[in-house]
Predict the 3D structure of the following.
Amino acid sequence: MTIDDISLEWTETDSEGLVRVIATERFSEGVGIVAKIAELAEQQKYDPEIKLETHKVTVCLFDDVESDVAERDFLFAKSLDDMLDS
């Protein structure tokens, strides 16, 4: 799986791995999105980096063990895309 297999909303950086910014209208909407991401992460035994701000949620996916973006990061990104699109 590669960056081409996930939503165009993801970017790949050297320092943060896969990054997706999810715009929100209200802080409470962001809290709800973070809760859904946390539930998905628990199901997949994955630990994403999540940053909650007033009008956005930023998700970073990076494999610390491999010091790079790994297959499981792309798989989690795809699962997150599917969850957000449903």
User: Anything to note?
Assistant: The mean pLDDT is 92.
